[in-house]
């Protein structure tokens, strides 16, 4: 794994409110373009449980690339987060950013938004300062607790994240809703960790009732993410281009 050679950037404070899950970082023309080399590297935003970045072999600094923020499940780490989409990253030209929660799982599951939101904002600010990111193809995704957190952050920050990918989520807890992100959800019908009847089969109708564009896939399996589901999610993610509006909200 390569060390970080990028200059650090502090997360913007204007519009950011970590206690409510609101992120302030926004894509812009890179101010300190990175000398990008393909593969996984540490970001250097924090010493313990650092964030990982994956740069695909096809990345070019003169072309804006899709970026997916990936969130691990409970007890996981940045490696398990980035591994969700890494097998398809080179083929799809995806930049992948995977933070690690400060504790065993994400802050909102421990009592409220705060430290993890702040870390994610700082990591995003650093990437936006160094890499050419396509604002219309910015996604947040995750598995299990990470999927629940991705749904929650994605709905709060729907103007930033146009796409949400939730593999086997358990719940959603947005402090508010903004924008109109597209949503992909998958869940195994034999999941015994987060049973589908109590989780996705309740979440999906609520999201659809609120007006969100939801693609939902059930599969015959346990608490996992099959390769064919990952491929479908990536194809879904990249198929939309820049057709989604950045403002407005379907929520009622």
What structural category arises from helix and sheet content?
A: alpha/beta
Distance between the termini: 46 Å
The topology string of helices and strands comes to EEEHHEHEHEEHEH
Tally of discrete structural domains: 1
Describe this structure in words.
- By secondary structure, the protein is an alpha/beta fold.
- It has one domain (27-239): Alpha/Beta hydrolase fold, catalytic domain (Rossmann fold, 3-Layer(aba) Sandwich), CATH 3.40.50.
- The protein has helices at residues 78-82, 86-92, 115-130, 145-156, 200-209, 227-239, and strands at 39-42, 52-55, 65-71, 95-98, 133-143, 163-167, 182-188, 214-219.
- The protein has an 8-stranded mixed beta sheet with strand order 1-2-4-3-5-6-7-8, with helices on both faces.
Offer a few descriptive terms.
single chain, 252 residues, alpha/beta, Rossmann fold, 8-stranded mixed β-sheet, 6 helices, globular, disordered N terminus
């Amino acid at each position: 794994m390569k060390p970080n050679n990028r200059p650090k950037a502090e997360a913007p404070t204007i519009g950011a409110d970590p206690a409510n899950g609101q992120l302030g970082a926004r894509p812009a023309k890179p101010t300190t373009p990175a000398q990008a080399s393909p593969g996984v590297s540490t970001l250097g935003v924090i010493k313990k449980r650092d964030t990982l970045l994956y740069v695909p072999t096809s990345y070019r600094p003169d072309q804006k690339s899709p970026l997916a923020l990936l969130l691990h499940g409970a007890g996981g780490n940045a490696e398990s987060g980035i591994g969700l989409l890494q097998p398809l990253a080179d083929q799809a030209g995806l930049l992948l950013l995977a933070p690690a929660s400060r504790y065993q799982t994400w802050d909102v599951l421990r009592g409220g938004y705060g430290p993890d939101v702040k870390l994610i904002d700082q990591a995003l600010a650093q990437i936006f300062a160094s890499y050419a990111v396509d604002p219309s193809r910015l996604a947040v995704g995750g598995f299990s607790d990470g999927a629940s957190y991705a749904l929650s952050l994605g709905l709060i920050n729907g103007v930033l994240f146009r796409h949400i990918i939730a593999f086997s989520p358990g719940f959603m807890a947005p402090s508010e809703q903004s924008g109109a992100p597209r949503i992909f959800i998958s869940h195994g019908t034999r999941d015994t960790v987060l049973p589908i009847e109590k989780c996705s089969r309740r979440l999906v109708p609520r999201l659809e009732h609120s007006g969100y564009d939801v693609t939902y896939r059930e599969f015959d399996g346990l608490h996992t993410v099959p390769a064919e589901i990952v491929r479908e999610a990536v194809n879904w993610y990249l198929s939309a281009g820049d057709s989604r509006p950045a403002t407005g909200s379907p929520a009622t």
